[in-house]
Design a protein that fits this description.
It is a single chain. Strands 1, 2, 3, 4, 5, 6, 7, 8, 9, 10, 11 and 12 form a 12-stranded antiparallel β-sheet that branches. It contains 2 helices and 12 strands, in the order αββββββαββββββ. A hairpin with a 2-residue loop joins strand 3 and strand 4. It is α+β, with helices and mostly antiparallel strands and 251 residues long. It folds into 2 domains: 58 residues; 155 residues, Immunoglobulin-like, CATH 2.60.40. It comes from Tanacetum coccineum. InterPro entries: LEA_2 (IPR004864), NDR1-like (IPR044839). This is NDR1/HIN1-like protein 10.
Length: 251
């Protein structure tokens, strides 16, 4: 009897387990799968790949803008750091103002709210900084009564050294200046004292060595409330009551 177990099997052999044909064999074995480094995966040799001509230009613009922003941010940080360090070293302070005397002559108030008179203010200016020189380029001053300006003047420019104190004089004159509250001035004069305000605006530069700060506008109020000038009912003269007064200085 023939041995069926040893009979040769006809047909195609089973494919190898690794998917590759044995060495030296060909069809009907399947071709090996394409490798990742084949030309199909290479976009430069792929016939189905169509490059975008604007892609590189857009990328260059984005990169350029990012660099510009980075430079601006770095410049702001560096500049701010320098300013902060200089502030720590210099510690700039605003000047101090103090009214020593405030006199009034030729004072007259008419029945139709017209005011005439001459005012003279003597005040001290002190530079509290020990590393900064102050340059007062322009100073304007005005005498007020309850918010109404009566007389104005300009003070000559001056320079103030470190820890220096300067005494200045401001003279004001009014001839028939109209004041809304002129009748109240008359009543105050009858009580023996009239309260005025002295306000100043100064344009100042700060200098420390070769370093210049930008101009600052100082606003000076002398004092925070009023300057009481003692003047009799039948008198045309008066002077500051209560001694010297400190002024408030702001930027």
């Amino acid at each position: 009897m023939a041995d069926h177990n040893n009979r040769p099997v006809t047909g195609y052999p089973a494919p190898p387990a690794n998917g590759y044909p044995p060495t030296g064999t060909a069809y009907p074995y399947a071709a090996p799968p394409p490798q990742p480094n084949s030309s199909y995966f290479n976009v430069s040799s792929n016939p189905n790949y169509y490059p975008n001509p604007n892609y590189n230009n857009n990328q260059q613009r984005v990169t350029f803008l990012r660099r510009i922003v980075a430079v601006l941010v770095a410049s702001i940080i560096i500049f701010g750091t320098i300013i902060f360090i200089m502030w720590l070293i210099l510690r700039p302070q605003v000047p101090q103002f103090r009214i020593q005397t405030f006199t009034l002559t030729n004072f007259n108030v008419s029945s139709n709210n017209l005011v005439s008179g001459n005012w003279e203010a003597l005040y001290d200016v002190r530079n509290p900084n020990d590393k900064i020189v102050l340059y007062f380029d322009h100073v304007e001053a005005a005498v007020f009564y309850k918010g109404d300006s009566i007389a104005e003047t300009t003070v000559a420019p001056f320079v103030q050294g470190k820890k220096n104190e300067t005494t200045l004089k401001a003279s004001f004159a009014a001839l028939n200046a109209y004041v809304d509250n002129g009748n109240e001035i008359g009543r105050d004069k009858g009580s023996g004292s009239v309260e005025f305000n002295l306000r100043m605006v100064a344009r100042v530069r700060f200098k420390a060595g070769a370093w210049w700060a930008r101009r600052r506008i100082l606003k000076i109020y002398c004092p925070d409330l009023n300057l009481a000038v003692g003047v009799g009912n039948n008198s045309t003269r008066g002077s500051l009551s209560g001694g010297a007064k400190n002024c408030r200085v702001g930027l």
